[in-house]
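Aim 2 progress update. The chain analyzed this quarter is reproduced below.
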Amino acid sequence: RGWAAWEPGRAAVLIALADTLSKILPVGLKGDVRKMHPTLRRLVADFEKIRRKYPDVGDAWQATYVASIFASDPKKAWKTALVPLPESLAGDVELQRKRLRTLRNLVLLWERGDPVADLEAAMAAIPEAIRADEEVSETAAIVDYLRLVRGDAGAGATAIATYTALAERRKGAAKAQALHNLGTLRSLSGDSEGAIAAWEEAIGLADEKGRDIIYLSAAIHTLSPEVLGSLDTLSKSRHSALIRIQAIAWRAEAIRRGGGDAVPADEAYYAAVASEASGELRANLPVGRLGIISTGEFTVNLNYTIREGLTTILAVNAVPWLVPAAPITRETKRRKDPRPKAPPTR
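Predicted structure tokens:
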């Protein structure tokens, strides 16, 4: 806390972060996630107060962006993240990226309203200085993908061009993600061979989580009784709740299309959502109903060097994977059991 005499704004962020961790870690280690919620829900208001007091401190903006995904009010979180950076920070490209990424994360977290309009509003808020940035072009490609899902073939062609360019520039796991998304876009555009070729190349570059997502997309592409085993395996993926949820939901759809009794599989989906929600730290559990699986992790990194002093990195490193949503996940109401009820016994 002595640091506060020298850099009060940055110190205020770290003190608030340390206080938060001291409250949530003891209950978190006991596995009681719900007892962490009240503290996490207050985070965005706590950091917003610091941001208003120290508007020229980039760490305060970073912390507010991270905290926004824990906020229980999506409109409040959106409004908080949409606030433009002050002139002193407007040229900070990395901070502008984080702002756009936060707005995109909120759209994918809450899965409400009109995602196309919201993402377009997010991009409109970005200054000219980063218009050509990869973060912006990928967000634009996501908008085009959402339009393709709605039936706009022209938007699909634009998204394919964007992800082709991204795949050429990227390396490793990032290249695998771009190739996967390219494969999904080709699949939805009727280019089956092109989709499979992109996924096969992606498999060789992806990490375990990425491979699970690629296998899921491939199973969806050829949805039939033959992929039930693969979907069953993916429903137990240890890498992401969204992978598990979509695998269970698509398994129900495969059974339905095969003429089988899908009601038990539907019930398994509802049970899975309830189970996953009980362990969710954020204010909402997304199920992938927009056709996008967003995966990633939180980064809290403190580093000290003689030249730069103490540097702080606070970020949510979310990666968007384009995975068509199973029909049941796009529905807002629980399906009714179509089977006739047994007559009451006397």
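The chain has three domains: 1-124, 133-206, 208-295. Residues 8-29 form the longest helix (22 residues). These observations will guide the mutagenesis experiments scheduled for the next reporting period.
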